[in-house]
Amino acid sequence: MADIKRILVPLDLSPLGEAKLPVAEAQARAFGAELILLHVLPPEAVDRLGAVSPEEARARTYLDTVAARMRADGLIAHALVRIGPGASTIVDAAREAKADLIVLGASVRAGLPRAFLGSVADEVVRGAPCPVLLVKPHLQAGTASPVRSFDDDAAKVGPLARRHLGIRTLEVSRIIGSVGRAGNLAANFRPQPRTREDDQRFERVLRAMAEGRALPPIELYRLGFGYYVLDGNHRVAAALQLGQLEIDADVTEFIPLGDVQAQRVFAERRAFERSTGITRIEAAHTDTYSRLEALIAQYAAERTMPDRRDAAKSWYQEVWRSVSPRIRQLGLARLFPGERSADILIRIAEFKREQEASTGRPMTWPEAVERFAAEHGVGGRPAAERRGARSLLGRR
């Protein structure tokens, strides 16, 4: 306990579980340790085709707001989303992150005078590779709303800078909250309770969208990973009912003033967007955007495309839209905690360049992704086959 450098804090997104946060922060300050905020998604909550699910969007948004507030308070904090069974995934994450301490919530059984370990906590304590600190929850904290509140989440972060991004197309699944109406909305963004007027208006919007009629863009606030509806709850509800994957929105983003890392990432992302016209790629590291621009420039040179924006659009369709879903399907993000698909794409690009230099032959992007995954023990190939592949690569 005298050398704690990394603290893992599993979070379930509920107010009940937030009792452990002050304890984890106190430990981080006392030891000068970094915090890894973990949320575990069950496998059924993840889209098998590589898209972002609503459950993942809510988790990432919550962790982003908590991590931003911690960084504003001078702590080092990272967000990590993993997939799998709760207890074993926490233990695996602790082992992979080389955590020196796990701060975990203990459950409290009604009618008993003391806290007892729940099944998840019990399994973690038994299997953890490091000490586990159990924190009793605040029973009066209540439960989480199915629709997140922008006001509540913004209050967690602290002072914010407002930046208008304009009209853009985004995934419906990343709309996870409301501005001012979270407590009155169900998970499908329909009001509760509903009036006859609400139902009639919804039916009109639903019919218009089903027929493909043009409607004004919805208005959204963005904070961290997620989006919150300022105007357009009926259109979001209709999009969800129709199974619509994308929607046009007028977006205003809010950046934590106390989080220098978030400000730098935002600035680099906006510069990348203005240069390329691509608005749907996001990274965790500031240098990822300049390196993506270098990849696009190389792509343009190889195809003699003088217009940088045309090249960027073509690169996005040909490379990004094929590689990024596969990165997510393979779960490569678990190998690099806190990184996004764009950051991992840069790693794959470096691997691809090294392999091409070593073998003297070009490698396609799909091949590079699969080889990269195999080199890191991901993708289902047996270890012996992976070793054989490495030796063959070395002989070429």
Number of DSSP-assigned strands: 11
Spatial sequence of strands, sheet with the most strands: 6-8-10-9-11-7
Instruction: Give the tally of structural domains.
Output: 3
* CA(first)-CA(last) distance: 49 Å
Q: Give the % helix.
A: 40-55%
Biggest beta sheet summary = 6 strands, mixed
What would the CATH topology of the largest domain be? Rossmann fold
The CATH class of the largest domain, by name, is: Alpha Beta
- What share of residues are in beta strands? 15-25%
Please compute the radius of gyration using only Cα atoms. Answer: 23 Å
Give the integer mean of the pLDDT values: 88
Taking pLDDT < 50 over at least 5 consecutive residues as the criterion, the unreliable ranges are 108-116, 380-396
Question: Based on helices, strands and strand pairing, what is the structural class?
Answer: alpha/beta
Question: Overall 3D geometry?
Answer: globular
Helical region count?
A: 13
Order of helices and strands: EHEHEHEHEEHEEHEEHEHHHHHH
Please identify which CATH superfamily of the largest domain we are dealing with: HUPs
Provide the CATH architecture of the largest domain.
Answer: 3-Layer(aba) Sandwich
